[in-house]
Amino acid sequence: MVIKSFPLIMILILFISAFTMPLVNNNKIIKTISLITNFICSVLSIFTFYYVQLYGNFKYKMGHFDAPWGIEFSIGTLESMMAILFTVVSFFIIWYSLYSIEKDIKESKVCLYYVLINILIASLLGIVFTNDIFNAFVFIEVSTLASCGIIVIKDKKENVKATIKYVVLSSLGSGLVLMGIAFLYSITGNLNMDFMHSELIKNWMNYERIILLSIGLFTIGLGVKGAMFPLHVWLPDAHSSAPTSSSAMLSSVVVKAFVLLFIKIIYRIFGTDIISNIPVLDLILILASIGMIMGSIFAIFQKDLKRVIAYSSVAQMGYVFFGIGLGNELGLAISIFHIIGHAFTKSALFLSVGSMIEKAGKNISDLRGIGKEMPITLALFTLGSLSMVGIPILPGFLSKWNFALASIQSGRLYLLTIILASSLLNGVYYFPIVINGYFGQENLKEKVYMSKEKSIKELIPIIMLMGMMVCAGIFSNYIIKILLIACDQMF
Fold it and tell me: Where is the NADH:quinone oxidoreductase/Mrp antiporter transmembrane domain (predicted)?
């Protein structure tokens, strides 16, 4: 059926449109191309998800050769859900950028920006869909270059420094991933994930040290790219200095693609029989727990609002790795659910923060009384903050609640204190921003109601992302049920 080719068509649409944009000498048309192509990909990803729910997982062969000689895509519930998430979130971020990007970068670089955005989304989809580990590495490299491009394009001293740091550390991570692939290829003779798993299951007892080494290389390599504590050091500078739409893109989708690949490597290539005999998940759990606490502590001491949100991402990625480290089905399913909830929330938070910074300034002290001048924007920020802290019904609460259940299920009750402490720390840096924004006679003095509020057309993308965040909370039982079925196939 033609639907089976939709994953490839999505990637081709984005790549081809990216390379045709420079031929168009009109920024409005270029923006429209980027927006429309991402909308088309969103629709195709929804059809792909629907097809998987009706007929089950499928493989799509690239070219004439069957696996393991040829490259194939492996599409299941997890891949199709991530495709929807990445394309839908990207669509609304691009929509927001239509009105704001010229405020962050020079007009002459707008075309290049959207070329990089489409290449970035295409490569992230490639990471999600591919069943070939070297093909995934190629997409990793493409996405890294595009990510660096959408940071440095602002062309300020701080962006150049942040990009250099990101390039150096990301190159180190890529090198480690490539070494991990080489070690696995040397003992399996394959690059297809399914065939690698089959060979490892038969021979892993003979190559325990090589397997331990390769898992370590993948963990550090993808840990750098996925912002696992303490390998996150590139993230605060990159996310806080980039254009607002770039910050939203990096935080909501880019780091998530690398974590998804890590999950596929751990559970599809190695499998539970092997990783249960290696203490890698325990190590991930320890680092994730520290990240949940330290990310929030670092956020508390920041004065720049974007850096607060950036360090909050370090803490939230700690939750994602926490679920992986628990090593049970519920933990893994909630880890993926947290990826979904966090993508909607953090993209909307970065966009609302970008709007407030544009009108008031980047320091937290500049935002006193902003609730009177920009009541809708601050209301949207407040809603996202409540989810991050863990207020009931919202996805942040449901993630933490289910992480607690998964911790109990794994027999490690002491982990509940980590979840509780992290939630309290989230409140310490989010609530003062909201309270000082809305309340205090001194804060509101001489402020004019709605004087700095953005137009409704600029607010719609943020409102839509927040709406989807609320829907993720309302329909969490359905989403988690689907994820549990998908994760069951990995165990």
Answer: 131-424
Q: What is the DSSP track for 317-365? A: HHHHHHHHHH-SHHHHHHHHHHHHHHHHHHHHHHHHHHHHHHHH-SBGG
User: In 56-113, which ranges are E strands?
Assistant: 58-61, 72-75
Which of 82, 192, 183, 78 has its CA nearest to residue 135?
192
pLDDT score of 69 more than 90 = no
Q: Are 184 and 269 in contact (CB under 8 A)?
A: yes
- Render pLDDT for 238-266 as a digit per residue (tens, 0 to 9): 988 999 999 999 999 999 999 999 999 99
**Token pair belonging to 479:** 């989403």
Q: Which H/E stretch holds residue 121?
A: helix 110-129
Beta bridge partners of 73: 60, 130
Distance CA 235, CA 128 (A): 22
Token pair of 75 as six digits: 């599409």
> What pLDDT is attached to residue 354?
93
Write out pLDDT tens, residues 191-230.
999 999 999 998 888 888 999 999 999 999 999 999 999 9
∠ CA 294-169-319, rounded to 5°: 35
Task: Write the Ramachandran bin of 58: left for phi over 0, alpha for psi from -120 to 50, otherwise beta.
Answer: beta
Cis peptide before 279 (omega within 30 of 0): no
Query: Does residue 441 carry a pLDDT above 80?
Result: no
| CA–CA separation, 331 and 402 (whole Å) | 8
- Give the burial string for 75-104 (b: 16+ CB within 10 Å, else e): bbbbbbbbbbbbbbbbbbbbbbbbbbbeeb
Alpha helices (H) along 130-234: 133-152, 157-188, 193-203, 208-225
In sequence order, the β-bridge partners of residue 60 are 73
- Helices 456-474 and 329-360, interaxial angle, to 10°? 160
Burial grade of 457 (CB within 10 A; 0-12, 13-18, 19 or more): exposed
Among the listed ranges 111-125, 184-198, 432-446, which one has the minimum average pLDDT value?
Answer: 432-446
What's the rounded Cα separation, in Å, for the pair 239 and 124?
18
In the chain, DSSP finds a helix count (H) and a strand count (E) of: 22, 2
Inter-residue contact 305 to 353 (CB < 8 Å): yes
Q: Is the pLDDT of residue 490 over 90?
A: no
- Residue 441 or 371, more confident: 371
In the block, residue with structure tokens 């993230």: 235
User: Rounded to two decimals, what is the model's pTM?
Assistant: 0.95
Residue 340 pLDDT: 97
